[in-house]
Write a structure and sequence with these properties.
single chain, 4 strands, rod-shaped
Length: 292
């Protein structure tokens, strides 16, 4: 097919093929780089969020809980004595300004039914129980939304047993609030759930596609300018000189022996023109001999 095209069209077809192949490679590479950058940013966000939650829990356990229990020994005050409650409440405050964050303490046997783990979380918690991993991180889709998530196991400690042993041992106000059919039977050392942090990747995905579109548009514009530039060069340095040679050759074939192949430059086309000039001279001498 290329053989039947003009030099100009042939070159444009070749450049178009180069453009398509380059775009496929550039878009694939660009998507990988931008997606990895979005994932890195999501990891940093979850690490920061997890650090904040852990710091709050540690501060409460070391500085608040002991004093509260000394002052209010028989009072039910989970906001200052239960780490899970404190972290859940703090996460809701953070979520008001940063709605892309979701913090969840998930358990297949929760005291608060809002903390009941779903099928995905159950699989991660089961992995913790089986020793498959000490912590988990990855990407997951929940309710049609793309998230980057991290999870660490929650093990029952001695401080947990006073709430999660049996309903009879637990504080009456707690049993009244949460009921007696879930959240009990914990034993020290058991993996009873996981602390999950989800960061929505929806905005990051949209930004990745926006960057990719700008990147692809920039490459396309660059190729367009290059193709136009090359087209102008080809016309001025290849097409027009060849057309000039063809025109002069046709005139000479009609007997106009005064025409010259005047081609500027020092390339193959100039060599071709010089060869035609020599051939014209030889032809003129041969014609003179024939006339004599």
């Amino acid at each position: 097919m290329l053989r039947n095209m003009s030099i100009r069209k042939r070159l444009m077809v070749i450049l178009s093929l180069v453009y398509i192949i380059s775009m496929v490679g550039a878009i694939a590479g660009g998507y990988y780089v931008f997606a990895r950058d979005s994932l890195r940013e999501a990891k940093e966000k979850t690490e920061l969020f997890a650090t904040v939650m852990s710091a709050n829990q540690k501060f409460m356990a070391q500085n608040v809980r002991p004093d509260i229990r000394d002052l209010l020994e028989d009072e039910y005050f989970p906001e200052a004595t239960v780490g899970i409650v404190m972290m859940s409440e703090a996460s809701q405050i953070i979520k008001e300004d940063y709605p892309e964050y979701i913090f969840k303490v998930a358990s297949p046997n929760p005291l608060n039914k809002d903390n009941l783990s779903d099928s995905f979380e159950n699989s991660i918690i089961a992995g913790f129980e089986n020793g498959d991993y000490e912590e988990w991180e990855g990407e997951v889709t929940k309710a049609g939304e793309h998230f980057y998530a991290t999870a660490v196991p929650i093990e029952a400690s001695k401080s947990c047993i006073w709430c999660h042993d049996t309903p009879e041992v637990a504080h009456p106000e707690m049993v009244e609030e949460y009921g007696s059919d879930s959240g009990y039977g914990y034993e020290v050392g058991d993996t009873v759930g996981g602390r999950f942090i989800y960061v929505s990747m929806t905005a990051s995905d949209a930004l990745t596609m926006q960057k990719l579109a700008s990147f692809g548009g920039g490459i396309s514009l660059l190729f367009l300018v290059a193709m136009l530039f090359i087209d102008r060069i080809v016309i001025s340095t290849v097409v027009k000189p060849i057309e000039e040679i063809v025109t002069v050759a046709e005139d000479i074939s009609r007997g106009k022996m005064d025409r010259e192949f005047n081609i500027k430059g020092n390339d193959e086309i100039k060599l071709l023109a010089d060869a035609f000039n020599r051939m014209k001279v030889s032809l003129a001498k041969a014609m003179d001999i024939l006339r004599k």
